[in-house]
Amino acid sequence: MNFEFWFSALFGIVLFLFGSTYLLKRFAGVEAHYIYSIWRMERFRRFIGRTYFLHRFVNLIAKLGLILGFGVLASDYLFARKQGFAKRVVVAVLTVASLFFIYYNTLYFAIDIAPLTSNYSALLTLAFSVFGISLFGLLLLVVNGIHILQNILIGEAACPGIAPVIPGVQIPKVPVFIPWYGWIALFFSMIVHESAHGIQILRERLTLKSAGLLLIGLLPIGAFVEPDEEELKKAEPKKSMCVYSAGPAANLLFMVVFWLIGFWFFNTFYQPVAEKYESVYLDLVEKVQIESVSERIPYCGNPKAPA
């Protein structure tokens, strides 16, 4: 019975993907490839053109994104490589101080207390402060790889190095679940990301050939902008780097803006209401009886983390 259900479900999904992709090709003229399609949208390209007035701002966040991503390497290349030694040192020191400030006020606490990374906290702090997210992310992968290898050698379960996440779908053995409305956030993130790429392409006087969506069946899983690849290859390295960094940098800014909006909403609407029910909450908590306290917290199947 279970086999028949999953076989029928799989058959239905495959049939839907093939059928919907064919219909898009047949009636919308979309470039189709079996179960996925590339939908080039002239409206999206015109939309990017209409938002070109933001080009100075996008260029700024693209450069800041490069510095956040590559630390002193990016700041020196962008602002100081043709300057004297003293000025290059000053730029490097300011970069390290700025990245350390960002790291300490965002990631430091989580990294310092997490069982997987607490032993490497100083090294990760140094990596982020000097070389930004690039070396920091690489070291996180190395640390997780070491953890997986150690647990395999001693026969214990390990945290997965990477796992797929689909909004609204609980994937077996993946502890992270994103509600269905995660698709809304994904859609806006795609628009912001690709629009920033497109605006930067236009700012650098490069050709924006097309823009659109990547779909599996009828489900949008990505967006894209298509520059003239030959022009991009011949462009100055600084210009091409800003084109590549504009999208991720815009997403980071988008995240910060919505975090601030959420923080404001919580303090303006939620907290005043919650305070009215504080007495009810305390009445419930005071009646709870603690029967036992665990000295260790299970971590990826192993009781390794101290409580």
TrEMBL record:
<feature type="transmembrane region" description="Helical">
    <location>
        <begin position="206"/>
        <end position="225"/>
    </location>
</feature>
<feature type="transmembrane region" description="Helical">
    <location>
        <begin position="245"/>
        <end position="266"/>
    </location>
</feature>
<dbReference type="InterPro" id="IPR008915">
    <property type="entry name" value="Peptidase_M50"/>
</dbReference>
<feature type="transmembrane region" description="Helical">
    <location>
        <begin position="6"/>
        <end position="24"/>
    </location>
</feature>
<feature type="domain" description="Peptidase M50">
    <location>
        <begin position="183"/>
        <end position="277"/>
    </location>
</feature>
<feature type="transmembrane region" description="Helical">
    <location>
        <begin position="89"/>
        <end position="111"/>
    </location>
</feature>
<feature type="transmembrane region" description="Helical">
    <location>
        <begin position="177"/>
        <end position="194"/>
    </location>
</feature>
<keyword id="KW-0812">Transmembrane</keyword>
<keyword id="KW-0472">Membrane</keyword>
<feature type="transmembrane region" description="Helical">
    <location>
        <begin position="123"/>
        <end position="143"/>
    </location>
</feature>
<feature type="transmembrane region" description="Helical">
    <location>
        <begin position="53"/>
        <end position="74"/>
    </location>
</feature>
<dbReference type="GO" id="GO:0031293">
    <property type="term" value="P:membrane protein intracellular domain proteolysis"/>
</dbReference>
<protein>
    <recommendedName>
        <fullName>Peptidase M50 domain-containing protein</fullName>
    </recommendedName>
</protein>
<dbReference type="GO" id="GO:0004222">
    <property type="term" value="F:metalloendopeptidase activity"/>
</dbReference>
<dbReference type="GO" id="GO:0012505">
    <property type="term" value="C:endomembrane system"/>
</dbReference>
<dbReference type="Pfam" id="PF02163">
    <property type="entry name" value="Peptidase_M50"/>
</dbReference>
<keyword id="KW-1133">Transmembrane helix</keyword>
<dbReference type="GO" id="GO:0005737">
    <property type="term" value="C:cytoplasm"/>
</dbReference>
<dbReference type="InterPro" id="IPR001193">
    <property type="entry name" value="MBTPS2"/>
</dbReference>
<dbReference type="GO" id="GO:0016020">
    <property type="term" value="C:membrane"/>
</dbReference>
